[in-house]
Amino acid sequence: MDRRTLILSSLAAAAAGTPALAAPEKASPEDTRRTYTKDEVIRAGSDFLGVTAEAIGGAIEKIAGDYGDRPSAYIAGEEGSGAIGVGLRYGKGLLYMKDQTEPATVYWQGPSIGWDVGGNGSRVFTLCYSLYDPKDIYRRFPGVEGSAYMVGGLGVNYQRADGMVLAPIRAGVGLRLGANVGYLAYSRKRNILPF
What we know:
This protein has three helices and five strands. By secondary structure, the chain is α+β, with helices and mostly antiparallel strands.
């Protein structure tokens, strides 16, 4: 999907008041051995983000209500972003999958456009749904995001591509206000250009 179509379809969905992303299919019983339980995700997210289980549990309950409580993978990492109308985001993390012995290093970068101003640094804990092969993460995932915080905050947004859904939970510091549409391109190595 090209950027222009992505931006127009996201804005049209937002204007119509309909969700831009539909829920992926639930994990089948044979896939449950390859997925994480809600308790495993809450424990890992709480430890990584340095927040209480109750704080991250609320965000995970919201995601579970939309996409199910059995993510197939998660990414734990850090990122920085900033925007004045047009924004950029760069990050690095480790992709954990239940059936993989070693986590894979993942970089992400991407542009955004919208009514958005400010900057922030965040720790990011991303739940991944319907991602069963680590090499499938290396693509672009479009998404819509809104931010409003001063000093600190915890936020969630959704990104979707080819039936896979990523739900980044960000705990960060900074000064940010606005809404934007864009994408994140996940890669094996760091890219300076976000396109």
